[in-house]
Amino acid sequence: MERERTRNSAHLNIGVLTSGGDAPGMNAAIRAVTRGALNHGHKVFGIRRGYHGLWRGDIYEMNSRTVSEIIHKGGTFLMTARSKTFETPEGIQKAVSMCKVFELDAIVAIGGDGTFKGALELSRAGIPVIAIPATIDNDIGCTDYSIGYDTALNTAIEAIDKLRDTASSHERCSVVEVMGRHAGYIALNTGVTAGAEVILIPEVDFDFEKDIVHTLIEDRNAGKNHYIVVVAEGATSGLELAKRIESATGIETRATTLGYLQRGGSPTWRDRFMASTMGLSAVDCLEEKRFNRAICFKDGHLEDLDLEAALQIKKTIDDDYVAYLDRLTM
Question: What is the pTM of this model?
Answer without folding.
Answer: 0.93
